[in-house]
Structure formats: C-alpha cells, structure tokens
Amino acid sequence: MLLRPPKVWELNLSSLLKAWYTFLALGLLTFIMTAFIGIAPVSLSSAVALPHQLLFRASLNLREAIESMVDRREFRAEVLELEQELADLKETNRRLELDLERYSQALRVQEFQSPAVVATAPVTGVDPSPILARITLGRGSSRGVRENMPVTVPEGLVGLVTEITPRSAVVRAVTDPESRIGVTVRGRGGQGIARGELGGLIRVVNYYENDPVRVGDEIETSSRGGLFPRGILVGEVIEVFAKKPNSLRIEFLVRPAVDMPGLQVVSLIDPL
After folding, report:
1. Which residues make beta-bridge pairs with 240?
2. What domains appear along the chain, each with residue ranges and CATH number?
3. pLDDT tens-digit map of 212-259
4. Which element (helix H / strand E) includes 251?
5. Residue in 101, 107, 154, 163 with CA at minimum distance from that of residue 132
6. What does each C-alpha distance from 20 to 17, 25, 28 come to in angstroms?
7. What is the C-alpha separation between 169 and 226, in angstroms, rounded?
8. What is the Cα–Cα distance from 242 to 249, expressed in whole angstroms?
9. What are the pLDDT digits (tens) for 49-75?
10. What are the CA-CA distances from residue 151 to residues 71, 134, 208, 234 (Å)?
11. How far apart are CA 261 and CA 254, in angstroms?
12. How far apart are CA 272 and CA 267, in angstroms?
C-alpha cells in the first residue's frame, strides 16, 4: 500500500500565481513611483528586491529617454528658429546689396553723364517683339517718373520714357525703329540722327562728318534733339557704308553700348 506525501509538500498552483502577481504588482508600483513621482521605496523585502531593481532601472532608463526626447525637440525647435533668423538676415543683406547697387549706379550716372538724375527704377519687362524694342519699368508717375525722361545706365543710353501709369512706365529703347536721337562721334564732331534697326542695332543716317568715321569709333548723344544730355555713350561703329555720289552725308551701323535684355535697374534723368 502506497503512502501519499504530506500535504505540506504539495505544490499549490494557485498560491504560486498569487505570489507572482504580488511580485508583479510590487514591481509595477515601484515603476510608477520612480518614473512619475521620482521616489523609490526604501523598505522593500528581500523577496521583491530583484524585480524591484530591474523595474527601477527600467523606469530610470525610460525617464532618461523621455527627457532626452524632450531635449532633442527643444534643440530642434531652437535650430529651426536660428535657421529662420539666418534666412531673414540673408534676405535683409540682399536688399541692402541691391539698394547699394542702385545708389552706386545713380552716382556713376550723375558723375559721368548728367547731374540731373531723378531716380532709379527696376526693369520689370523687356518686349520680346523682333520689331519693337520696349522696356517696362516698375516705377511710374506716383514716384516722379514723367514722359520724355531719358533712361540710362553707366554703360550708356537706354532710351526714352514714352508711356506712363501711376506705377509703371514704358521706355522706347535706342534700338527701336521709332527711336530718333541726335548723335556725334566722340571726340571728333559731326552730327547725325540715330534710329533703331532690326536685329538690335542702330543706324545713323544723314551724318555730316568733320572727319572720316571709322569702325570702332564711339557714338554719343549730341545737343541735337533737345531731350538728352550731351555726351552719353550710345554705341560703337561696326560698319560704315559708302558715301553716295554727290552727297555730303554718310550712314553707318552702330552696336548699342547697353545689353537691353540684361537690364535690371536703370536711372532716369530730367529732360533738357
């Protein structure tokens, strides 16, 4: 007859589960107190020391991770703020550079072409027509622009204001077929009329020469016409046509001094 072991040695599954749940509850309690309150229990029994240590370390790691994430977010926000400030400073610096460029251009025009510089204006459009050469300015009558104002840059003459609105103006360029400008050969004299030519050139007609005109001569505004100050560079002679029989006048082609499609800012001068 077999003897059964005493009940004291019987394993009770229910008791083991209760003990495990107790350890788990204590560990969770420790985690909550450490992670969210910041206080760790000081009197824990040796029976729960191991799970407490594990969960305590886990809670510390979690808190450090959360703090690190918050620090990174704050750092990222600070970096974005600094990047925006840098972009604003770059934009301000660029505006100052453009203002300095405009003022420097106006001073050069005033010094070398005419003291009667009224203002500068941005170029907002260039007519793509192969026939007409018109340029639109982003400044009009509300800013002091008037019709018949000569328009120029330090490189030379651009044209004449022919149309105007309160906020814009249209310039007839020296290369426009309707343009008419009194010109002379720089340093040599003579008188003629410069008119626009297809292809972006200028043809000088009815030119009465004091001395022979040669390729490479510079052409500038003369006193003829009454609107342009004398001495503004118009362009360079690239071809001289043969004089007609019994004629005292000659014709020649001129390459304009100014690159019209590349214009960005121009100066406006009071007409004579």
Report:
1. 252
2. 180-259 (2.40.10.350)
3. 899 999 999 997 767 888 999 999 999 999 888 877 899 999 999 999
4. strand 249-256
5. 163
6. 5, 9, 12
7. 21
8. 10
9. 555 566 567 667 767 777 777 777 777
10. 59, 12, 26, 12
11. 17
12. 15
